[in-house]
Amino acid sequence: MPGTVYILGAGASYFDCAGAGIDIPLAHGFFKPDYLRKYWSMPDQVRAIWEKSHLFKVIGQYFAGRAASSLNIEEVYSFILSSLKNPFLRFWEHSVFQSAEIEMLEYIRNILSAATLMTENPRLVNHLLKHLDTMDTIISFNWDTLIDSAAYIKSPDHPLLKFQSELLQAHHKHSDWYSGKSFGPPHCPAYIKIHGSINLATCDNSSCIHSSIPYRCEPQDEFTDFYRCDNCGHNIKTFLLPPHTAKSYTHNNFVRLQAAIAADRLACADNIVIIGYSFPVFDAEAQSLFRSSRMGTDEHGDGEQHLRSVTLVDPSVSIPEYVERVKDLLGLLDSKRAHGRSVPCITHNSVEAYLAKYSR
What we know:
Layout: E1 4-8, H1 10-19, H2 33-39, H3 54-62, H4 73-84, H5 91-118, H6 123-131, E2 137-140, H7 146-154, H8 159-173, H9 175-179, E3 190-193, E4 196-203, E5 215-216, E6 236-240, H10 253-267, E7 271-275, H11 284-295, E8 309-313, H12 320-330, H13 335-339, E9 345-348, H14 351-358
Parallel strand pairs: 1-2, 1-7, 2-3, 7-8, 8-9
Antiparallel strand pairs: 4-5, 4-6
Helix pairs in contact: 3-5, 4-5, 10-11
């Protein structure tokens, strides 16, 4: 199923929100005072004050000596989740960490929901939706709902939204998807939110099917802390794939299925366009996904030969090591062996430059 695979990192969403005058935070910006003042809002009056929250206690205790404004939110989130699985965590600390996790998810959702709501014309997203072909794929590493909202505005039945809905029904409608016999409708653009999203939520009851298969709300709606699982009545919480060392594409059936579809689409892509994704060295799962998809062999033992071009859109293209690392992951350093031909790597140092060339 050849087509173009678009891979979107944080820089893609940052560009669209900045164009609307919104400084959406990157990983190191979530705990800046301006964001905390605008978006820290919890259900009860005590925790509504940042300095009285459980998350503030955790950061003050375990990240002492480091300014909160410079902390990487993925590092903090990873620490909280890893600690909750630590058998040496004392029982009174466990409740603090549980509350800190809930507060963090609520805070992330507050910021990203506001950014989506206030971004009326996401230029990059609208460009992608305009030029999207039935054989194309969007793989987003972002937690926001910019694509979902823009697609919904165009049509509540937009193919990308329908694809996401079908993924959530796959456990009983498309059992062959999980068996690997097929991956999604054959003539439909795919939309994969491989690291979760603020419009996805899972049940906290590990024996419930919805602990593995998330709920999904429409772009005009949102989850609240008062939602309960329709299946078992337990609490549900926003589903974001744990980052850093806790990240795994075998986390649950939904993530596993998305990763399998992503690998399938990457393996036979005509073109790969990577926008605002830095290929962080700690994201081992994503790097394995790229390398195994593009450097593997097909059923006949021959390397995939569909790939025509790779396009990198990121300020880091000015750094030779970054470009070489991406080429290495996608098999471009030995493209004649891996792809049967020389594959060009096209670079743009900004989304603006990319749009200037390809927007018509």
